[in-house]
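note to self — DONT lose this again. spent like an hour looking for the file last time. sequence + predicted structure for the chain T wanted, 321 res
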Amino acid sequence: MSIRSARQKINADAGSEGNIVPIHENRDVQIEGDIRVKDSSAAAYVGLTTKDSFLKGLFTTDMHTWPLHQWEWASGKGYLVLKNGAAWEHVKVGTGMDKNGELELGDSRVDRLNADGGIIRQNDKRSILIDDFRGNMKVIYEHENDGSKATDYAAGDVKITAAQQGSDVTMMTDSKNITLSDDAQVRSVLDALAGKLYYDDARSGRTNLKGTAMIAEGLTASSVSKKTVDIFFRSSDGKGYTRDIVENGNYKNFHGLDTGIDRSSNETLTFDNFSGSARFFYKHVNDGTQTEDYGSDPEHRIPASSMAIRTSNMRRRTPPS
């Protein structure tokens, strides 16, 4: 589908406060094909609001056009509504290429996505770029092998620039080849999933977007959840990560932003992958000048060997007693 000019409305339009709203809440809309929005004055509004509604294809402004006898990026706008179990299966359907048949199509880009129980099935190597996300949705990935490595996920990333306060994205895969009783493997799978989600505004300290990584029984949106963990976002590049703690005090991944950690336990604390900065708070007995003065209470003291920190970018501070 090629949109050359004006605004094309497929069961959606601009509403109040910049939201994209459906025209008919109960209308089934089924689209198969890549959507191209060419001219800068053009816009596509697509509303998928029922469980039988779907878009199968790329939804993008990053396709090449031939308006002036030269190839240039299309510059139109794309707006999308995903509600009530409606699904966008993100996969290339058409055969679009450049004039020599050599240059592949670019990533899909949505200028604004309003979601409420919407589903994205990310089945294409291209990323999905969302400038403005509002609401909640699930993004479903298939994986190869046991899903514990980033390379087990062939589909592209989901990159959100800005989000409305309270927005929520669940990154989901199934339990194929995953031993759910293996905590280390489960943590690796959840962290690999988290790394497919980016939130650019996290670089400015914003926290409007909540993320969850989930291993489910199957690949349907209604599949029973088996394992979940919160997703955090790095302040350096907005990439998602987990900082799940296991019983022995080991962090799989940790990114701190001057994060305070209360050390009131005698368990060994280790970091497999540490970035950013952190402050460690210890209680002490006596005058605090000796290692053995630090423990959870005067009757319990922590030997020097009990805190193993494998990083050079970390600070320790003792608060006033």
